[in-house]
């Protein structure tokens, strides 16, 4: 379902599996003379264990330190000298590496990625590990330790999930664990997870699928299959009672966080929760903005979000109090809105506004080649179904208001809530 006159991108793609287990997604988009080379490894912070956190993110940094045939910094230089861009990121469930190049330089991107997959170990040294460990530790200090409200997100997860649950610890890891990482641990991590049979390679852009498949076979086909990584499973039943905590920080305004365990990404209920987040706080005309920011002026800003994570979602509600507003009053107002969402469907205008924004966001992402390639890798990694990207619009278009009520009534119960309040340090009890 789409609006009359909307431009729908052609999402036709091919999925092939090489003999070594690498899944290859090919998508032709000839509108621009570009090609996206997008590689997902099915490993993230959830594959770590307590006391040894941060390895996945540290390893992402290590992959930009050169491989056997590509000296340090040369990967960046080779891509940038032809006008391309590249980067990588780590999350709970995956690590991805992506580059966009002029289409006639596709083979350059394949060579660089295949050398990292097949020939990284000889380039990993104690010196490169120590260098990148210092970089990551400084990144954590900058983004978490020395950032206003920086500890709140990870503390919410620590309260919401048991200590042995893979979403308990932060993606970036803890300082002590990062400092303790050894060269042998890094090498074992590579041999375990950075294998063809644990990866998805998406090639999207101005390419001939048959020729692109041949190039992928040439550069990746001879790389050996690795051991099949153990798939992480974790049971996180709903909380039996609300958990509350106050966290003092060097901030000027109090901030209230609610956290709830929610259905995993891909579950039909996840889409209802995502749309509920839009009803509540997507844009300045949303329910929470109208009431808490403009009408009652209890909050400076509000946000609601549902993580698209593999083992289960995390539903967040966040609001920053206006000066002089007690965080308890703000928390009570947020709780009232969640109770209302669990009792009755949203107003039709609010529902349609949120759905239209969700659909607009999807179409906007699909118009960008690099983002489209990333979604193809995502759907293949999680569901072995790159074509699922084309059904996202229909999932939202078919949602009924009553499904949002069911999500709120089941997920956002007060006894299943974590409430974290960040207060200015001088006001802490």
Sequence-ordered SSE layout with sheet pairings:
Layout: E1 14-17, E2 23-28, E3 34-41, H1 55-62, H2 74-81, E4 85-90, E5 95-102, H3 106-118, H4 126-145, H5 152-160, H6 175-180, H7 183-193, E6 199-205, H8 209-220, E7 243-249, E8 255-262, H9 268-281, H10 287-295, E9 299-306, E10 313-321, H11 327-343, H12 348-366, H13 369-383, H14 392-397, H15 401-411, E11 418-424
Helix pairs in contact: 1-4, 3-8, 9-12, 9-15, 11-15
Please characterize this protein's 3D structure:
It is a single chain. This protein is an alpha+beta fold and 429 residues long. 41% of the residues lie in helices and 18% in strands. It contains 15 helices and 11 strands. The protein has helices spanning 55-62, 74-81, 106-118, 126-145, 152-160, 175-180, 183-193, 209-220, 268-281, 287-295, 327-343, 348-366, 369-383, 392-397, 401-411; strands at 14-17, 23-28, 34-41, 85-90, 95-102, 199-205, 243-249, 255-262, 299-306, 313-321, 418-424. A 6-stranded mixed beta sheet has the order 1-2-6-3-5-4, with helices on both faces. A 5-stranded mixed beta sheet has the order 7-11-8-10-9, sandwiched between helices. Strand 4 and strand 5 (95-102) form a beta hairpin. Helix 9 packs across helix 12 (348-366). The longest helix has 20 residues, at 126-145. It starts with 13 loop residues before the first strand and ends in a 5-residue tail after the last strand.
């Amino acid at each position: 379902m789409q609006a009359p006159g909307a431009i729908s991108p052609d999402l036709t793609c091919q999925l092939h599996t090489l003999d070594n287990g690498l899944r290859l997604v090919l998508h032709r988009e000839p509108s621009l003379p570009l090609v996206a080379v997008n590689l997902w490894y099915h490993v993230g912070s959830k594959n770590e264990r307590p006391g040894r956190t941060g390895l996945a993110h540290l390893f992402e940094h290590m992959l930009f330190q050169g491989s056997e045939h590509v000296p340090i910094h040369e990967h960046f230089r080779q891509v940038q000298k032809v006008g391309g861009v590249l980067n990588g990121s780590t999350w709970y469930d995956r690590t991805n590496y992506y580059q966009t190049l002029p289409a006639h330089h596709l083979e350059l991107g394949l060579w660089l990625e295949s050398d990292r997959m097949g020939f990284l170990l000889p380039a990993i040294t104690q010196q490169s590990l120590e260098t990148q460990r210092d970089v990551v530790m400084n990144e954590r200090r900058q983004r978490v330790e020395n950032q206003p409200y920086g500890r709140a997100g990870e503390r919410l997860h620590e309260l919401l999930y048991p200590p042995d649950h893979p979403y308990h610890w932060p993606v970036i890891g803890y300082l002590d664990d990062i400092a303790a990482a050894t060269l042998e641990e890094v090498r074992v991590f590579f041999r375990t997870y950075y294998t063809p049979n644990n990866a998805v390679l998406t090639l999207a852009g101005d390419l001939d699928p048959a020729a692109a498949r041949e190039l992928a076979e040439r550069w990746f086909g001879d790389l050996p299959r690795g051991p099949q990584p153990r798939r992480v499973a974790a049971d996180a039943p709903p909380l039996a009672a609300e958990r509350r905590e106050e966290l003092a920080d060097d901030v000027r305004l109090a901030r209230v966080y609610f956290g709830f365990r929610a259905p995993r990404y891909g579950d039909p209920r996840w889409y209802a929760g995502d749309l509920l987040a839009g009803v509540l706080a997507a844009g300045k005309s949303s329910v929470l903005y109208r009431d808490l920011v403009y009408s009652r002026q209890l909050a400076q800003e509000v946000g609601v979000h549902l993580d698209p994570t593999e083992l289960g979602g995390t539903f967040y509600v966040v609001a920053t109090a206006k000066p002089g507003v007690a965080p308890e009053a703000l928390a009570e107002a947020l709780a009232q809105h969640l109770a209302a969402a669990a009792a009755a469907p949203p107003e039709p205008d609010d529902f349609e506004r949120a759905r239209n924004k969700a659909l607009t966001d999807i179409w906007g992402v699909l118009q960008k080649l690099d983002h489209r390639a990333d979604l193809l890798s995502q759907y293949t990694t999680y569901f072995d179904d790159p074509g699922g990207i084309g059904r996202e619009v229909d999932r939202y278009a078919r949602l009924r208001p009553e499904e949002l009520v069911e999500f709120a009534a089941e997920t956002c119960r007060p006894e299943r809530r974590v409430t974290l309040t960040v207060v200015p340090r001088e006001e802490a009890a």
